[in-house]
Amino acid sequence: MRVNQMRLVVEVEDYDAAVAFFRDALGLTEEAAFSGGGDERVMILEAGRATLELANPAHHRYIDEVEVGRPAAPRFRIAFEVDDTTAGTAELVDAGAEQVAPPTETPWRSLNSRLDAPGDLHITLFQELDAQPPHSPPPATAQ
């Protein structure tokens, strides 16, 4: 079997606000939109390359500590690579996101911010600071 696409499906109470945030403010490209009987609506947004990052609880806590300074993320978090984390964070806050943590340089040389977005989604914006970004953050070391 070969997987050709990963799609994250999210049920959102305020569909219009979520579309305005993710399509219009974050700039994801509308791939398709459908409506059905009653009030059924769905929009598929293209977000560039998709990856699935599996993290054990210890690593999950470590990333929260680095990016936020405390436990912050629910079990699921969506990360978006952007060209400018600082400007992107400001734009998304203006579009209705709540900033959880400001842009922070990580030990693996990326600039990451955390936001709570419409649809009850916890997101990270990240900007790689080096020309050749690492494939994953270095493992946490015991202090």
Describe this structure in words.
It comes from Asanoa iriomotensis. Residues 2-128 form the VOC domain. InterPro entries: Glyas_Bleomycin-R_OHBP_Dase, Glyas_Fos-R_dOase_dom, VOC_core. This is VOC domain-containing protein. This protein has 143 residues and is α+β, with helices and mostly antiparallel strands. It has a single domain (15-128), classed as 2,3-Dihydroxybiphenyl 1,2-Dioxygenase, domain 1 (Roll), CATH 3.10.180. Helices cover 22% and strands 29% of the residues. It has 3 helices and 6 strands; from the N terminus they run H-E-E-H-E-H-E-E-E. It has helices spanning 15-25, 57-67, 85-94; strands at 29-35, 41-46, 78-81, 98-105, 110-117, 121-128. The strands form 2 sheets. It has a 4-stranded mixed sheet with strand order 3-6-5-4, covered by helices on one side. A hairpin with a 3-residue loop joins strand 5 (110-117) and strand 6. The radius of gyration is 16 Å and the shape is globular. The termini are far apart. The model has no long low-confidence stretch (mean pLDDT 90).
